[in-house]
Structures are given as structure tokens and as C-alpha cells.
Design goal:
The chain has 58 residues and is an all-alpha fold. It is built from two helices and no strands. The two termini are 27 Å apart.
Length: 58
């Protein structure tokens, strides 16, 4: 998900929709995220290593 998408202005003209939005946000605040367990090993790569794997596009 693009991080800039959270900075959009939202205009709500209907009062019932505004109540629904506030309710959804309050409900989401009380929920916790699930733990994610990786089934495959992972490791960090440096820029040069990524270029070696994917090949240079230039």
C-alpha cells in the first residue's frame, strides 16, 4: 500500500456515514494485529546483491 494514500482528504456529506466512519475507526483501534510466522527463511540484501539477482535494467 502506498504511504501517501493515508494523507488524502475525506469529505463526508451524510451524517449517518460520518457516524459509521467514526464507529469503524474506534472499532479498529481496539483490535490487535495477528502475529506473523515466516515459513521460509529470509535475509537482508544490499543494493548490489539485488542487482545481481534481478539483473540491471540499464
Amino acid at each position: 500500500m502506498a504511504t501517501k494514500s493515508i494523507y488524502k482528504n475525506v469529505v463526508i456529506k451524510n451524517s449517518s456515514l460520518s457516524r459509521t466512519l467514526v464507529s469503524a475507526l474506534e472499532n479498529a483501534q481496539n483490535k490487535t494485529s495477528k502475529d506473523v510466522r515466516l515459513s521460509k527463511s529470509c535475509r537482508g540484501l544490499k543494493r548490489g546483491q539485488i542487482k545481481d539477482i534481478l539483473g540491471e535494467s540499464n
